[in-house]
Request: fold
Amino acid sequence: MPTVDLILAERLDPSFKGFPPERAAFTVAEAGAQDLRLLRGDLPMPVAVLRESALRHNADWLMRFVAASGASLSPHGKTTNAPQLFAEQLRDGAWGLTVANVHQARLAVEAGARRVLMANQLASVGDAARWGALARAHADVRFLTLTDSPAQLALLVEGLVRAGAPRTDVLVELGTPGGRTGCRDAASAIALAREVAATPSLRLAGVEAFEGLNVSNDAARDAAFVGAWMRALLELAAACDREGLFAGLDEVLLSAGGSAAYDLVVGGLGGAALSRPVRIVLRSGCYLSHDDGMYRRHVAAIAARGAVHGEPPRGALEVWAAVQSRPEPDRAIVTLGRRDVGTDADLPVPKWWFRPGRDARPAPAPAHWAVFGHNDQHGYLRVDAEDTLEVGDWIGFGVSHPCTTFDKWRLVWGIDDDGRVTRAIRTYF
Reply:
């Protein structure tokens, strides 16, 4: 699997979507010296780009929040699956990296993470053995994973023993009725915690939850729901502490907090009073690229709760496409389809309008333009009959839920605010 140094030495060529096929191959490290310019037409469309200024702003913004809150950040790597960005997040001060499977864990380790939190259950003996083998091969890295049932715990232990793994840190996950994973009540969670603590090959490192899928942006409802969940998580940790289940720990980990309501998580977990120190670990992943859809709405709700200071994060990830047809007065067809952009949360949002040969810089797209459908390679854009949008014009689209756009691209270009390519960023989905 690639390390960042190996990635920089990797050669890019026309087999990568978004690479200009008229160019000779060059390495990732050489990308910034190629004088490639988005607005000059040097990149084939559709093409995915990350605005460097927005990335830096977003990274600084969340690290300021984390520093002020006293929490730690272990960003979720599955958003970008880009080891180059992992390394930057670690240099920014991330406590560790969060992953969802063994493939991502290997990338995280090789990007330099010294703590890897699997915010998921290892669900086969084979994957548990692979996790154990990774831990055995990297004795200087702390590996943590989740459990939410005796059945899953049993296969975890079987796989770890098969791999000859060192003693493994485990967090018990507390879920909610009707939710995704996690113990459904305090009684089953504390019983499972006892089982973890009694297993010689395991160590109970803390407790965990994931609230993100339940955030609605209804301020009163979210505060009540997430607040109650975090109180239940605190009560579980306190019960474990009273029974001595955290024996041998320097600190207890309390982990929750995606990119949707981390302020409520910090507020809810901040009152922990255990017999040993507590570390709150947030797992926000989408903060770095942010977006122009669901996370923009989430951050607006966070701002309304008073937890955003200064300029909020900006959508850094854009996919640019060309207008290929304007077959009817109120619609245009663009070269942007499901193969290029995620549509699981919202359809892409027109942000920029640029006409080659006429414009020096992109202009903001009219607010009434809206994507209303997609095929594999085509996007349907609603416009007004009076709009002067023409075939051959370019539109830069913002995305919603960046996770499902990054996975469409093995190559994403970093650009400055003038559209000059600053670097190539590789993803490994």
Observations:
- The chain has two domains: 4-51+313-426, 53-289.
